[in-house]
Amino acid sequence: MTRRSLFTLATAGLAAQRKDEPVKKGDLYHIPSDLPVPVDDGACRHLAGMKMPAITLVSTANRRVNMADVARERTVVYGYPRTGKPGQPIPKGWDEIPGARGCTPESCSFRDHYKRLRELNAQVFGLSTQTTDYQQEAVNRLHLPFEVLSDADFALTNALRLPTFEFEGVRLLKRLTLILSGGKIEKVFYPVFPPDKHAEEVAAWLASHQHAD
User: Fold this and answer.
1) Which CATH superfamily is domain 69-213 in?
2) Per-residue pLDDT reduced to its tens digit, 175-210
3) Residue 11 in this model has a pLDDT that exceeds 60
4) Taking each helix axis from N to C terminus, what angle separates 132-142 and 103-112, rounded to the nearest 10 degrees?
5) pTM
6) Which of 85, 149, 181, 209 has CA atoms 20 to 30 A from the CA of 91?
């Protein structure tokens, strides 16, 4: 076996070992430069113009949010698979799924652009299929100024036929963003990449699509 082959095997072994190590806090905010880029598989083409159903979801503020009521105003709902926690390992294979990595950086980006989005007359919600308790930990740790909605029962996901994928036996949302207005879905961002720059993309779209008074 050549020296290059031995080096390659050693590097691969170290990489696999690191996947089992606890995630350092700073790593949650970092997006690797070699992530696979998601492609548009057409799973969201049916969404634009759809009426939002009167489905109620629980938010991290422990209140019930009716999505039909929310959709009456200009609203940004960014959906993501799952956020990680410091001290937990990154699951093996997670980074190899196009569009999976980056939920924490995306949430931080919407946090940092929240004031601008509100100035553009849009309210903001996060959305995932994680439980409210799990989401509340992330909201508190990341100091998010907006609520995150739990669709753990897949009521909204199934009603809108939102794209999902399975990982380790768990069904998760693919990353997407819905702009709601007038009771309907006005705009769909899908796929979303890179996630840490997406809030800027949403703000730019809102700025160029302001409603006339």
Assistant:
1) Glutaredoxin (3.40.30.10)
2) 999 999 999 999 999 999 999 999 999 999 999 998
3) no
4) 60
5) 0.86
6) 149
